[in-house]
Amino acid sequence: MTVVNTFVTTWRFLLTIVPSALVILSLNKGIKDYRPDIVDEAHRVRSIYISHLRPSYDFIIVGGGSAGCALAARLSENPAWTVLLLEAGGDEPLLMDLPQMYPVFQRTPWDWKYLTERSDRYCLAMEDQQCFWPRGKVLGGCSSINAMMYVRGNRRDYDRWAQLGNPGWDYNNVLHYFRKSEDMRVPGYERSQYHGHGGPISVERFRSTTPLRQVFMDAASQLGLTHPDGDFNGRTQSGFAPPHGTLRDGLRCSANKGYMRRSWQRPNLDIVLKAFVERVDIEPQTKRALGVTFEHDLLQHRVLAGKEVLLAAGALASPQLLMVSGVGPADQLQPLGIGVIQHLPGVGGNLQDHISTSGAIYTFDGRQPDGTHMSLIMPEQLNTDSVDEFLHQKRGFFYAMPVSEVMGFASTRYQPAHEDWPDVQLFMGSYSYGSDGGLIGRRGAAITLDNYANTYEPMMYQDSFVIAPLLMRPRSRGYLQLCSSDARIHPRIHANYYDDPLDMAVMVEGLKLAHRLTQTAAMQRLNATMNIYEWRNCPEVEYLSDAFWECLARFYSQTIYHPVGTCKMAPAHDPFGVVDPRLRVRGIRGLRVIDASIMPTIPTGNTNAPTMMIAERGADIIKQDWHHYPHGGWR
């Protein structure tokens, strides 16, 4: 049976690729012809000619992702400073603007394509039992390939950062930087003390939804879980509501679009795209960062930093660059022949991520009177009618974000509800692994063809949805293991999901809450039924028991793309700290890390907005340290 199913799945997958590719090619051409707002030719970032590279800059920023774009824009506000931004990828392709297209860019040249080490405790349904970790290799970084959820985290997250010995990072201080980066466009928040207006990153609701969104909200209401004001970034976080997104006029608003397209033409800011930074050049005796060495067009270049080198390459590449440059755990560097300039045992440690369980799929009776489906069935949507609707009416399928039409934050029995510090986040999505025949969802999650055929083939193209819980504050910690002195060779990623048994206990409770939502009257009116074939992964356990949910969690483990913590910000007495509260690398002059890797603990929610907040605050710290207090500039 499995062999037959795998054969059928493989052939359908191959036969689906061609028509889908033709639709996407038509869409891309149509955008060039009819959507000048997306082409945006006048504002598209252009790389300088390498021959125009200055020998020295005041600041060199490594990495043009969420943090790097914000840093480059803010530091170049001072016309007296010269700033160089080095990004290994190119500019965003046109299709990245479309919310619905975000998973298409995983496992492509715009993705670094990281994989975790094989495990027998998680990602059991995935190829080689490895978790696939996409990371953006493009200007804008992960803000250009993510699902655009605008969530800041919980006030207690940042108060805890301060309590751990990092003054200035409490909620009351960082709220200013969240507001500074934001242009809130959702009606009803014009006078909210929690939101900003006129900042570089636009925030809106997703423009296109399915009828399931209201069903999801009705189910949450019937369990008493509706969010009181629909704003996870306001006075309270707990509850369910449609999410806000980093969107402008319904399209993606990446850090590139928000920050760089309005600043890249400044005469004091140079940008080099497709520039791979090989190392930070550090003088061993003085322990000062002198500049960086990078490769561009197969040639090696060296450029000097008059003031500082700023690493903004993300939670995987920033610690790797530190290590290949001689800063990190001596026991990792010395065996690879890397001279130890500064022994910092915490570099690459403290790795945290929001693990999700994405396999709990529910089918339902969703055929509407007009014959259409309540959920998204990809063959019905990925067609020329949808292309025309997008190009000429600026609405429809390509504006949708079905992965989370409704989002929820809840506290399990392991977290006191009165603290309003939820320990699980839930995505209520209007499609599933069976909705696209394995074309995007299976490929993005790296589920094996055998497993996919065995568990999802029987429910192919039926109305279905997923409620995926995410573990918010894992106790488990992973680490990176350097493999080579060559920065091009990915480090080994030891994710260590569920290393602490409490993490699995919380995940099981999250899955049980998701299932309770499907048993409400709102869901049962649609005959919502769990996909029984998932039981095939662990037939020896009792159906719907805690052991069953644990089985699902171990088989369908999926990152939500939030690795953080690998260059931990900490006070001097913490032996595993990497940067101080002013983001300076311990023991090295002229070098800071300013990205998600500095987070001591992971925030309660998506990490893109917090990463931009870190860059905004980091830019102000630099201005203060170099005695530049800006007059004017953006809010």
User: What's the average pLDDT?
Assistant: 94
What's the gyration radius in Å? Answer: 24 Å
- Which residue ranges are poorly predicted, with pLDDT under 50 across at least 5 consecutive positions? 630-635
Specify the biggest β-sheet. Answer: 7 strands, mixed
CATH superfamily of the largest domain: Glucose Oxidase, domain 3
Query: What is the distance, rounded to the nearest whole angstrom, between the alpha carbons of the first and last residues?
Result: 62 Å
The counted number of beta strands is 26
In percent, how helical is the residue content?
25-40%
Q: Which CATH top level class of the largest domain fits?
A: Alpha Beta
- Category by helix and strand content: alpha/beta
Please name the CATH architecture of the largest domain. Answer: 2-Layer Sandwich
Protein name: GH11954
InterPro entries: FAD/NAD-bd_sf, GMC_OxRdtase, GMC_OxRdtase_N, GMC_OxRtase_C
Organism: Drosophila grimshawi (Hawaiian fruit fly)
Domain Glucose-methanol-choline oxidoreductase N-terminal: 314-328
